[in-house]
Specification:
Length: 102
């Protein structure tokens, strides 16, 4: 239902990108006339459409050169025994990215 609503909200000639997936039994339907009339594009995105073989070396170079500060993205550093509490923290909507130190 969300995919269909997003697609209907897209302007003529626009693009809707679906991030994530639904269940294998969920379907989204369109009739041929509305596809023709609106000229919208519907596309999917898996993992940001990255190519790890290409993108990871580029990201690693940015990190080595100091242009990408991964430390600034870490909100908590936890030990292995802190993982259950980190999940509770996450479920409560607190924190962002926890780094597990072991």
């Amino acid at each position: 239902m969300t995919i269909r609503t997003a697609w209907e909200s897209t302007r003529r000639g626009g693009r809707t990108t679906v991030v994530g997936i639904g269940g294998k039994d969920q379907q989204v339907t369109f009739n041929a006339l509305e596809l023709f009339h609106w000229g919208r594009t519907l596309s999917g995105c898996v993992y940001g459409n990255s190519d790890p073989a290409v993108d990871l070396p580029v990201l690693a170079e940015h990190i080595r050169a100091g242009r990408l500060d991964l430390g600034a993205l870490v909100t908590d550093r936890i030990a292995l025994d802190g993982i259950p509490a980190a999940f509770e923290h996450m479920l409560a909507g607190k924190g962002g990215r926890a780094l597990v130190i072991f």
